[in-house]
Design brief:
heterodimer, A: Rossmann fold, 11 strands, B: mainly alpha, 66% helix
Chain lengths: 303, 425
Amino acid sequence: MSVISDTISSSMNPTVMKETKMPESDSTKAKIERPADTVIEEGKTVGIPFSDDPKFKLRDVNVFYGETRAIKNISLDIARNEVIAFIGPSGCGKSTFLRCLNRMNDSIESCRIKGSLLLDGQNIYDSKRDVVELRARVGMVFQKPNPFPKSIYDNVAYGPRIHGLANRKSDLDDIVENSLRKAGLWNEVRDRLDAMATGMSGGQQQRLCIARAIAVSPEVVLMDEPCSALDPIATARIEELIAELSESYTIVIVTHSMQQAARVSNRTAYFHLGHLVEVNDTSKVFTTPEHELTESYITGRFG
Amino acid sequence: MTNPSSQAELVRRSLKRRYRKERRFRFYGVAAISIALFSLVILFTDIISKGYTGFIKTTVTLEVHLDGELMYLNDASDPDQIAMADFQAPIIKALQGYFPQATSRADKRELSRMTGSYASNQVRDLLKENPDWLGSTRTIEFPAHDTVSVYVKHAGDPGYSIRLTEQQQRWTDELLSKGVIDTGFNDVFFSRGDSREPSNAGILGALIGSLLTMGVTLIIAFPVGVAAAVYLEEFAPSNRLTDFIEVNINNLAAVPSIIFGLLGLAVFIGLFGMPRSVPVVGGLVLALMTLPTIIISSRAAIKSVPPSIREAAEGIGASKMQVVLHHVLPLAMPGMLTGSIIGMAQALGETAPLLLIGMVAFIVEIPEGFFSSATVLPVQIFIWAGSAEQGFVELASAGIMVLLAFLITMNAFAIWLRKRLERRW
C-alpha cells in the first residue's frame, strides 16, 4: 500500500491547515498513479535545487486555488542564464508554478500564493511591486500561439510601444527587425510585415510570440509548453531558437516532452502532485535519476 | 450475436431512418422561413399598396384673377386689410370660369371644397409677399381638397368617392380631363411638418424629430452602456453589490417601455423642469430604455474575447487599462455595435414612452434643435392612423415606409461600420 505523507509543516498557521485538506479524489488518483512504496516528503527535494547565483530565489512556495493546495512547499533556485525545464504528469502544478514567476495567476481570484519569491533579491509579490514592470522583465510565451489580430509588425512593436522603449519610428523598426531576427522569422516575413499575424502558420505564429516577448528585452522568458500545438519541424525550429536565446536570457520551459527537456535544458525539475520531487542537471535526471518517482516517469511507467 | 453482413444491413436501415429524419428537420426549417417570408410579403404588400398614394399629390392649377373688389382689398400692403379680406372668393371665381352655372350658395360651398382648406391662406401669403399682384391674373397651383385627392387617386373605387357629392365628382372628372386637376410627386410630404389637412401634411418634422431624438439616445446610451459593461466585466469585484446591479440590469431589459415614459415624465419634466415634447427628453427616456440592451450585449461581446489575447497582452506587461483599451474593446466592438443597433432600432420604433412626455402633440413647425418641440416617426404614424380624414390613412402608410427606410439606413450604416472595424482587426 502506498503511503502519502501530506503532513503540513509546523510553520504553517492553523487556519491554513484547515484549508489544505486534500480532496478525496486527489488522493485516490495518487494511489493509482503512484508506484507502490513511494514516499514524497513535503518540501524535500532531491538533487541540486539551489544555486550560487540565483536569478529567482523561491522558498517554501505554496499556491492555493480556493481550498485546493496546488503547489506544496516548493523551494528552488533558478540560475542566471540557464535553461530550466519543468516536467511532470498533467496537473502536477508545473504550469501553476511557472505562472507564479510573473504573477500571471493574479487574475485568478481564488488563487493565493504563500512563501518567498525573489527576483534578483526583490520580492515578486510585494504589494508595492508593479506587476507591469515585473512582466516587462519576465516575458511569457504561451501554450497556444496567441498573436494579436494585428499585423506582424504591430505584434512585435506592441510591447516596446506600451513601455515607451522607442521614441522614433526608426528605433521601433530596429527593435522589430532585431526581435524577428532573433526569433528566426525575419527572412520569412520581411516582405509582409503588414500582413495579419493570424494568417501565418502555427509554428510561425509561435515564433512571432517569442519575438513579441523578447522585443521588450526581458531578462527571463517563461515558456508554457510552447511546442505542444506544433508539428515536429516547427518544434525543432523553436528548440534551436531556445538554444540561441539561452545565451542572453534565463529561460524556464514547461514541457510534456521529455526528449525536448533533454534537448534544450541545462537543468530539469520534476514535479509530482504539487511537490517538487527532483531537480538536477538534465543529463543526470535523464540518465541516473535519484528519486524513484522521477525514474518511473522518465521511463514511461506513468504520466 | 450478429454477423457482419446483418450488422451492415442494420446500419443501412438506420441510415435510411436518419436521412428521413434529416429531411424532415430541414423541411421544418424551410417551412419556418417560408412562413416568416410570407408574412413579410403580406405586410409589405399591404403597406405599399395602401401607402404609395401618399407619395402622390393632387393639385388644382387655376388662373386666378386677384380682383381687389372681390376680396374687399384695395391695398395688399396693409396688414389690417389683409386680415379682413376674403381670399376664397377669387378661387371660387376662377373655378366658376369652368362651371358658370354653379352660382348658388350651396354650389359655391362645394366649389370651395375642391381645393384644400389652406388654399385661401396660400393666396393671402402670395399677396402679402407681392402686394403689386393685386388686380393681376396669376397661375397658382393649389393642393386639391382631401376628398377630391382621394377620389382622383382611387378612380373607379366607389369606397373612396362617398365623401364627394355627385356634382363634385362630375366637376372633378371634367377638371381632370382638362388638365386643371393633375397628380405629381408629393414634395409637400417630404418638406413639411404635420397639418390638419392631409394634402398639406408632411413627414419632415417627424423625421427630423426622430433624427434628433435618436442622436441624443445614441450619444448617451452607447458610451454609458459600453462603460458600464466594461466596468462590470473587467473591473468590478465579484461581490453581492455587483450581483445585485447585474440582476437589476437584466430586469430592466424586461421592463415595459411605458414605465420609462412615466419615469421621464416624473424625473426629467417634473423634477428637473425640462420642457415637454422636446427631443432631449425623448432621447433621454429612450436612452434609459436602451441601456440594458446595450449593456447586456456589450458584456456578452467582452466575454467572447478569447482569454488567450488577454493573457498575451498581460504577459507582455500591458496594464489592465491597456489590455481593455488596446485589445478587448476593439475585439468586442463589432458585438457591441450589434447590440446597439438592436437597441437603437427598438428605440426608433418606440411610441409609448414618448406619448407620456408629450411628443404626441400636434406640431406643425419643423424642429430646429434638441430643445424645440418635436414629434417622432412612430408617433406621427400613430397620430395619422387615428385621424378621420381618408387622406391621413395613406399618409400613415407612407409614413411607415419612411420609418422602415430610416431603420434600414440606420442599420446599413451600423453594419458598414461593423464590417470596417472587423476588417481592421
